[in-house]
Amino acid sequence: MSYISTKRPPNHWKRPSGMYRDIQATIDDIIAEDDLVALRTTIKEIFRRNGNEMTLPGITICRFKDGRMIEIRRAFDNANIFRQPAIKPPATN
Q1: Residue 81: CA atoms inside 13 Å, Cβ hemisphere, count?
Q2: Do 85 and 52 form a contact (C-beta atoms < 8 A)?
Q3: How far apart are CA 46 and CA 24, in angstroms?
Q4: Is 49 exposed, middle or buried (0-12, 13-18, 19+ CB in 10 A)?
Q5: Coil, helix or strand at residue 55
Q6: Are 53 and 62 in contact (CB under 8 A)?
Q7: pLDDT tens column, 49-77
Q8: What is the value of pTM for the model shown?
Q9: In terms of DSSP H, where are the helices of the chain?
Q10: Rounded to an integer, what distance in angstroms lies between the CA atom of residue 87 and that of residue 6?
Q11: What would the pLDDT profile of 12-48 be if each residue is shown by its tens digit?
Q12: CA-to-CA dists, residue 93 to 18, 39, 81, 87, angstroms
């Protein structure tokens, strides 16, 4: 299922402005039990500097209470962000 919306994405979806184009987010799986919802997602985008496509799989777990989301946890392979577009990650101490 693809997520397509004309609305501005929520703050937790923001990425560095201008680095990527043609961003497509797909929800691959949704699993719900009690107050938890888990999503397996794939984000595909084009890196503007060299035109390389990047695929970023991820997991999001949301907790709900009284019909409202009260907690969100997300996990991505962050090293993948640098590896796929062929740019060097920032130095670490």
Answers
A1: 11
A2: yes
A3: 10
A4: exposed
A5: strand
A6: no
A7: 788 888 889 999 999 999 888 999 999 87
A8: 0.62
A9: 78-83
A10: 31
A11: 555 555 777 888 889 999 999 999 999 999 988 888 8
A12: 27, 33, 19, 19
Q: Which residues pair with 21 in a beta bridge?
A: 46
- The 8-class DSSP code of residue 32 comes to E
Q: What is the DSSP letter of 89?
A: P
- The answer to whether the CB of 78 falls within 8 A of the CB of 59 is no
Question: What is the strand order of the sheet 68-76 is part of?
Answer: 2-3, 20-33, 36-47, 53-65, 68-76
Distance CA 63, CA 21 (A): 30
Contact 77, 57 (CB under 8 A): yes
Per-residue b or e along 9-38, where b marks 16 or more CB atoms closer than 10 Å to that residue's CB:
eeeeeeeeeeebeeeebeeeeeeeeeeebe
